[in-house]
Amino acid sequence: MDRPTVGRRAVLYTAGGALALGGISGVVGASSGSTKEVTGKLRAYDGDPVAGRKIHVGGDGGSVYVTTESDGRFTTQVSGSSVRLGLYKSTPGQLTAPVRNGVPHIDEIGQYYLDSGSRDLGTINVQRGYLVKLRGLREDGTPATDAEFGFRADGYGPGRNWYRTDSEGYAVIDGADFRGVELAESVKVKIGVPGADGSVRTYSRYINVYGPLTITAKVGSGITVERGGSDVTQTSTTTETTTTSTTERTTRTTEATQTSTTEAETTTHTTETATTTQNRTRTTTSASSENATDSIEQLPNRGFFSNGESAGDYAFVTNPFTLTVGGFALSVLGVLQNMIRGK
Amino acid sequence: MGRGLPAAWSALFSVPFFLVAAYVYAGGTGYPTILAVPFAAFGVFIIAIGAFVQVVKPSEPRLQDGEEILEKRQPTQRVATVKIVIGLPLFISTVYLLFFTRLPYVYPTLTLFSGLYYFSSGLYTYWTNSLTQYYITTNRVIKEYRFLSLIRQEVPLSKVRGVQERKSITETLVGLGNVRVASGGGGSLEVVMSNMENSERFADTVRELI
């Protein structure tokens, strides 16, 4: 039998050559270690500069943080052939800032390949971030005040100490007067909720953020994603009369006036009056109120079967990466199977 | 070496996927740049298989004493071409629906999966046809296919009990047919030769020999 030995060798040689070339180019790339200056300017979706925020600069020579100036400009020195930039909406003492202004708390700015000289990346538009509330619930639906929360966007994410959990089981950035974080596009969310037996159930999911969302992890039920209608949430400073009897059922109306401001915009964001009716079996010293007002224009969330309110359904297939990887993987497997079987 | 230029054609077929990958990577879609990876990886897969098909060839059958090859045929690539041509517009529609509209994901998903079905089906038809050879000898009807391993099917002419001609819808549209030569001794002794030009003449040649 005439076996195509030469042909297979040629393939192996070609593959080996490609690997060798890849290795050589990698060595050459790594050896181009002269320091280069990289500059750029970050601009928010509304045109404002992204000022005073940290940028994680990762390259062949390690990683550093630089802080943007008042006009959004940043300058850094890197070595190697490429640099990857990630934005952290931070304050000087806090990597996850208690600020809500439409800039995502975490965002990959991009990876840039560098020539031998310095490079000005120009003005880089940071994508719009939307408020994503994270919540943990126990099996019986009661809020898990000891739930653990995490999120990552393209590998960037804060540590474990960025939040506190409020009485309703929501994650609140330390020092923030709102629940949740601002995120954009594809983000991996992780919520750990202690169950009745004390063991922590951790749930994670990739979420596409194109509008406000509420992500709830419930022990035994997993993660649900709802389009969040309430975009402004805070603990109201309600003054109330305490009733001494714990069995007394009190119905009352609380009026709270609240003001929400954003840090980047120094102007008042919204001023509103909410009326909340509460049924209580025990007297408490705090109350929360939410309103469904969103003063920022937003696109309808893109879902699998429909956009808008039900867009959170089937969230695992609303990630274009998942869809394309699934489609291409099926194609590759089908082609290989048929070719190997000789159908 | 495989017939034609499978490496070159495969490289050409991979171009749309690399173009989309480059567009996504450049940030043209607003989606994360990692979305470029599956498109580029599929392009690399097409090129790699095309290069492999280029260097692999079906081997000539070993002939018995006094045996001669009377006819040697290869499947044509028209069916593969039709499938690829159907798949490409669906793929382009996917790119449009996914990146340039905000229609629910079900629409680009449908076009992606149907487009990939036709495109991939066309690709493997093209590659398998490049690696397939049919022979009629004075003693046997032989079909030979080699990809990673050799698959050789043959029916001795003395055992042929039936010759069947068929034309699928796609084959009818492009003027091709397939011929089944069966020994009557079960499916294992049936050789199916598909995507053949002038399949009637090939079938007649077999009939004349039995």
Q: What does the model show?
A:
The complex is a heterodimer of chains A (343) and B (210). Chain A has 343 residues and is mainly beta. Chain A has a four-stranded antiparallel sheet, with no helix packed on it. The two termini of chain A are 22 Å apart. The two termini of chain B are 33 Å apart. Chain B is α+β, with helices and mostly antiparallel strands and 210 residues long. Chain B is 49% helix and 20% strand. In chain B, strands 1-2-3-4 form a four-stranded antiparallel sheet. In chain B, strands 5-6-7 form a three-stranded antiparallel sheet, with helices on one face. In chain B, helix 1 runs antiparallel to helix 2 and helix 3 runs antiparallel to helix 4. The interface between A and B is large, with 43 and 47 residues.
Question: Any key phrases for this structure?
Answer:
heterodimer, A: 343 residues, mainly beta, 4-stranded antiparallel sheet, 4-stranded mixed sheet, disordered N terminus, B: alpha+beta, 3-stranded antiparallel sheet, 6 helices, 20% strand, elongated
Summarize the structure.
The complex is a heterodimer of chains A (343) and B (210). Chain A is mainly beta and 343 residues long. Chain A has helices spanning 5-31, 320-341; strands at 35-43, 54-59, 62-67, 73-79, 82-88, 106-113, 119-125, 130-137, 148-152, 163-165, 171-173, 181-183, 185-194, 200-209, 213-218, 222-227, 232-236, 250-261, 268-280, 287-291.
